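Need residues for this backbone.
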């Protein structure tokens, strides 16, 4: 004979569904977009287990089920609960994956902007000769991309050496950028940022980090001055490259090969200078400070990096 669930069993199962809906509305209404998906999912599954366990118990009591049939009732209700729980877990997993990706991106952008301000703060406290502000912020920003501390330190060191080598080359070729020019170009950069597709996200990230886009750029004048010097040197080299008589035979990737070779030659020449010897000492001390987790201003200054 085909089994029919009692009215009370059906009522409890329906009540479980109603409780789930009410709980979902309650939680979403309180937390909005900041819903803790994992916690939410576990509570929903708990409601399902309790509800269907109660339904199984009711079925046994109402129908005075024989001992040998109790296991069948339990299995039947357990299967129903498992199916509903799997659906809940599946839906929550999809939502969790999407929200985690969005939150991580937002968190990384906020952390990046906070490090921009930290670089500016360290620069103002440690003075223009210290390499630590760039080294510290560079390492932390590299780690935001998922790199290990070792890889972040290595890549930051290479970037700083390359940056300093190209600035050294720019100065030797008469390509200097004044403070006034830097200020003008930073203001232009701020204006261009406002047309970026992710401008709203940048504004929100800066706000969360306790700053603004304007401050993040303008407070890092020395950092941007070096970027502009590097850009001017690149433009000068490209102009020289295009003036070559064989330009008609060149392809776009030839410029990249030319620039990469120029950078390597410049770094090699820079490493023969006293400027690099001084920089290398500062980098070594900065690496030691970062590996030891030292952030105290006085200790950093005492290291004379």
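Answer:
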């Amino acid at each position: 004979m085909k089994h029919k669930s009692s009215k009370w069993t059906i009522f409890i199962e329906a009540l479980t569904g109603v409780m789930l809906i009410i709980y979902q509305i309650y939680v979403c209404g309180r937390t909005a977009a900041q819903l803790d998906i994992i916690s939410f999912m576990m509570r929903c599954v708990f409601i399902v287990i309790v509800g269907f366990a109660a339904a199984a118990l009711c079925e046994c009591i109402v129908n005075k089920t024989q001992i040998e049939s109790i296991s069948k009732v339990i299995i039947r209700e357990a299967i129903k609960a498992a199916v509903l729980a799997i659906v809940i877990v599946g839906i929550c997993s999809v939502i969790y994956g999407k929200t985690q990706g969005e939150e991580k991106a937002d968190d990384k952008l906020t952390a990046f902007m906070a490090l921009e301000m930290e670089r500016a703060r360290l620069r103002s406290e440690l003075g223009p000769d210290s390499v630590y502000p760039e080294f510290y912020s560079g390492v932390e920003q590299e780690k935001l991309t998922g790199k290990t501390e070792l890889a972040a330190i290595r890549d930051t060191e290479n970037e700083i050496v390359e940056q300093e080598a190209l600035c050294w080359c720019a100065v030797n070729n008469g390509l200097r950028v004044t403070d006034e020019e830097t200020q003008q170009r930073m203001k232009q950069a701020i204006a261009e940022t406002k047309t970026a597709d992710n401008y709203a996200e940048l504004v929100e990230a800066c706000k969360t980090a306790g700053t603004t886009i304007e401050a993040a750029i303008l407070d890092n004048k020395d950092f941007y001055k070096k970027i502009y010097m590097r850009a001017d040197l690149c433009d000068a080299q490209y102009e020289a490259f295009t003036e070559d008589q064989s330009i008609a035979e060149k392809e776009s990737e030839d410029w990249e090969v030319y620039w990469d070779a120029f950078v390597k030659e410049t770094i090699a020449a820079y490493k023969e200078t006293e400027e690099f010897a001084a920089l290398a000492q500062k980098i070594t001390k900065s690496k030691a400070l970062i590996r030891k987790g030292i952030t105290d201003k006085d200790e950093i200054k005492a290291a004379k990096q």
